[in-house]
């Protein structure tokens, strides 16, 4: 068929939606990786402020489910997950396709939802009581939805990026069960 169109192989182009932008330079790639890692670290740091202010307060006496992991595990797991989500976003960004725009918007959306959850769940409980836990649950459900769409959009662009997000999605679903239990039982 290509011979019938009169195009030589050099003249054929991939569909516009899949065309990659010119090669991104090493310096640009490094700067963007640092931006994604730095933003994730900033969100983690801001979230930890609400946790550290309340983990030995109301949370220490809260009714939590029997499957709640030890406290030390949360910081360890979240550190790995924040790094993985940043690398996943960077992998999608560096592909530079016109298909990267929507997935990266989902990345920033989930990061905002992630940032909103911690102050709601930990920080507002002393003020709002159980309502804070229910608001946190609403945010974590929205985060699960955003992450699901993010995985589905990252995967076709970079299989590695999609796979890097699966532990994060799993952990957020698990965290959602902890949040739901806390909302019902406190």
Protein described:
- This protein has 186 residues and is mainly alpha-helical.
- Helix content is 75%, strand content 0%.
- The protein contains 7 helices and no strands.
- Helix 2 (26-54) packs parallel to helix 4 (101-123).
- The longest helix is centred in the first third of the chain and has 29 residues, at 26-54.
- The radius of gyration is 21 Å and the shape is elongated.
- The termini are far apart.
Describe how the helices and strands are arranged.
Layout: H1 2-5, H2 26-54, H3 71-95, H4 101-123, H5 125-128, H6 130-157, H7 159-185
Mean pLDDT over the residues: 87
Number-wise, the strands total 0
End-to-end Cα distance, whole Å, is 68 Å
- Helical content stands at over 70%
Strand content range: under 5%
The profile of the biggest β sheet is: none
General form:
elongated
Low-confidence stretches: 1-22
In N-to-C order, the SSE pattern is HHHHHHH
Structural class category: mainly alpha
In angstroms, what is the radius of gyration?
A: 21 Å
| Tally of DSSP helical segments | 7
What attributes characterize this protein structure?
186 residues; mainly alpha; 7 helices; disordered N terminus
Summarize the structure.
The protein is mainly alpha-helical and 186 residues long. The protein has helices at residues 2-5, 26-54, 71-95, 101-123, 125-128, 130-157, 159-185.
